[in-house]
Amino acid sequence: MKLLHIDSSALGANSVTRELSAAVATRWLDALPGLSIDYRDLDADPIPHLTGRSLAGADPAETEASERIVQQFLDADVIVLGVPMYNFGIPSTLKAWIDRVAVAGKTFRYTADGPEGLAKGKRAIIVSGRGGLHSGQPSDFQETYLRHVLGFIGVTDVEFVRAEGVAYSPQHRADALAAAHASIPLPQRRAA
Length: 192
Hints:
Elements: E1 2-7, H1 16-31, E2 36-41, H2 52-56, H3 60-75, E3 78-84, H4 92-101, E4 108-111, E5 114-117, E6 123-129, H5 141-152, E7 157-163, H6 170-182
C-alpha cells in the first residue's frame, strides 16, 4: 500500500496542518508496517503554476515533472493533504499541485454522460487547519472545493481532520489540536 503525504503550509514548525498530517502518516505507518510513504512539501518545493507555456508543453523539463506528479498521485492508495485555510480557501501551492493532478485522460475524462473520474478506489484524508470557525459556514470554500475536485477525478472516499479556531487563543489552539489528533482515522474503513 502507498500513501502520498502532501504538506502545503507556509508556517514551517508552527504549522497545525504539518503537525497533524505527520501524525496521520505516523499512525498509518504504525498500523501498516509495510506502508510506503511518498512525501512532498509544496512550500519547500513548490510546483510552478500553470501557464500557456505549461499547457503547450513548451518546457520539456516541466512536462516531465508534471508527468511524475500525476503518476505519483495515481500510484497512491491513500492521499494525506495538509491544508491550512488561507483567505477562506486553499494555499496557491496546493492549487498548483491540483492543476498538475487533474489531467484529462489520466484522472478524468468527458463522456456522453458528462465527466467521469478515473482515479477511483483511493482514500483521501484532508487535514484542515483554520484560524477561525468555518465548518458548515458560507466562509468555508476550502472543504467544499477539495471534496468537489477530488470527487471530479474519482476520489470519493474523503475524510476531514479539522483543527478550527486555532488563532483565537493558546487554549483554543491546544483544544483544537487535541480534538483533531483524537479524530485521526486509521486504515480500517468505517462501517457502512
